[in-house]
Queue: 3 jobs
Job 1
Amino acid sequence: MRIVKPVKIKDYVLDGKKIYIQSMLNTRSDDIEGSVKQAIELEKAGCEIIRAAIPDKESVALIEAIKSKINIPLVADIHFDYKLAIMAAEAGVDKIRINPGNIGDMDRVKQVADICREKGIPIRIGVNSGSVEKEILAKYGSSTPEAMAESALKHVEILNKFDFDDIVISIKSSNVNKMIQAYRHISKVCNYPLHLGVTEAGTERMGIIKSAIGIGSLLVDGIGETIRVSLTGDPIKEIYAAKDILKSIGLYSGIEFVSCPTCGRTRIDLVSLAEKIEKEIGNIDKNIKVAIMGCVVNGPGEAKEADIGIAGGDGCAVLFKKGEVIRKIKEENILEELLEEIKKL
């Protein structure tokens, strides 16, 4: 098991005992009202850490505006300008994402490290396959997983030089295989908390698939302390996808939903029924398994481990709990009666 150096961000401790879900605002940085609204919506959806781009001094105003309306940590995403990092720290941000090697001479890095140390603000070093330094690329021939890890550790050394060690690392790639290999490599050579994600994963369909494979593979290996599912679109969907990834491997509380793909034996409208039930139970906070099966072949038998479920018949279904049939339900009443039984559990 990987031993993680604990890093505190506001009230959270990144130490491997819990996986925290992140997302990033995609409202314009000059739209304070819209950014605050989206931050509130993300927190309500289950986001645990929010990141906001701070591209100029005017956008620093986002920090106070957002923090006054949410209870979860806020991360400032900074590129190149060390002054913005200092301003974000002074404004009370909870964490800063920056690459020390990209902000100029060492005196600038020292100023950022000093104020973050003084205020207890951790720094996330974010490396991706397109940001590896030229000399490292020359050494490895391309942005290999080893090259990405070496780039990240180079930035770590810069911060360590100025007595700063509250560090989180991410080494993302849009290539799933490369991303997995990069995180596996760096997990063996350092003990800093790791933020997982497939960068530029795409729109919802492929983005969720790529993220589930990349993030899920690493989490199963015990690698990763925070995650972000990066999707082109509504960031609320990133939260739902992240929850589902964590639920699927037993790392997030909530209902585990299973349903069969249907076949020629199916005699009820299982597809629409499954969609309705999944939507209705999405926010129920119960650690139970619910099964929606098309027939008795897949019903109490294959799904006997489910806490509750239904197996379709001809215009009806049987309700079962832990493989034991309880009663028969008419097709038109399945949704209502199943939901009522779930509430009782």
Job 2
Amino acid sequence: MKRIFLFVLTNLAVVLVLGVVANLLGINRYLNAQGLNLTALLGFALVMGFGGAFISLLLSKTIAKWSTGAKIISQPSNQTEAWIVETVRRFAEAAKIGMPEVAIFEGEPNAFATGAFKNSALVAVSTGLLNNMTKEEVEAVIGHEVAHVANGDMVTMTLIQGVMNTFVIFISRIVGYFVDKVLLRNNNDAPGIGYYAAVFVMDLLLGVLAAIIVAWFSRHREYRADAGAAQLMGRKQPMINALGRLGRLTSAELPKSLQALGINGKVGALFASHPPIEERIKALQVLK
């Protein structure tokens, strides 16, 4: 609940900062004189940027179950399922969080954690992970996902996305209004084609920049989750071995909303949700 409060507070702070800066630079007075209600725009940016991210967070477990076909282990039907549930329980107790729901989904090696609250999260592993890794390596992967939950990464990543959305919406519409009213001298009350064209272009450009920033934070959280797994297990070698094996396997591609909190993801420079496996192993090797 504390992180949800932080989520709301940060988004409100972003809007407040935008408003103060606009007033200090005289942008507010100028835009008001030109017919743009900056306060209304700030409110719109807050609702759209914060609202969409918040709804996505609240629905994250439902979407994850539906998109991956994850089967919740409500009552273990075999020794493997019982072992997975007990491993998650042990790590959850060590991390001082509530017991997450535990699930298995069909697919190539991967795992993920999701949920709006760290005391009622979801941890899922794939059949490919169970079939291609040793028990100790699977245990390390589960520790990685529990560490994501304990670190509050689901809320943190949603918070960052919400802040980025707010900036994109606000700035792109300011630029659109400037292009339409100042550069193209549209004197009509209704926005002209210049406004819509500029907003479209700025949404694309700023959206790319926002995606780069979100991806950077996602990569940073992966290092922390790797270290968290090592701490939960009491040694780092199992996590190093698990990463090394993942590097030799073909990982399942998770839905976009889950990629940032999976054990492995696409690596593609600025837009990568995960650092290269080699870099993650190096970070663990020097970990004290």
Job 3
Amino acid sequence: MEEQQITVELPRFGACSYAPDEIIEFPWGLPGFPTLRNWLPLNLDSHPSFVWLQSLDDTSVALPAVDPWMVFENYDPKLPAYAFTSLEIREAGDFATLCVVVVTPNAAEMTINLMAPVIINLRTRKARQIMLDGSSYSPREPMPRKMPASSKSA
């Protein structure tokens, strides 16, 4: 049986079709977007280094994110135990990590939030942004000018 496809018109990206099992649920919302719970990860040919987290609850909201190891290969976040418990993560292969990117209005500067990575349980499709308390990582780490060509998909 073929899975149902849903098509939605996105202000930033145009028409987009997806299957319901592609949705990532943020049961606790995201800081700044507490009521937006359903997100779709998008990989775009025009932005191959990024995964766009597109809100399905408010289609005007889309957040660029990256695999942090593509930018900072020595990134070593120490996730608190509640991250694994709340997301029902059993083993390393269960989850992916993304970090949200902030672009200044004139695109002169991009920063990456290494202090609060987004952890996605790939099995259950539930996610949570986790604050790395006591970490020396910055919520606004400057991004290098040159980005690698591709990123892992969530």
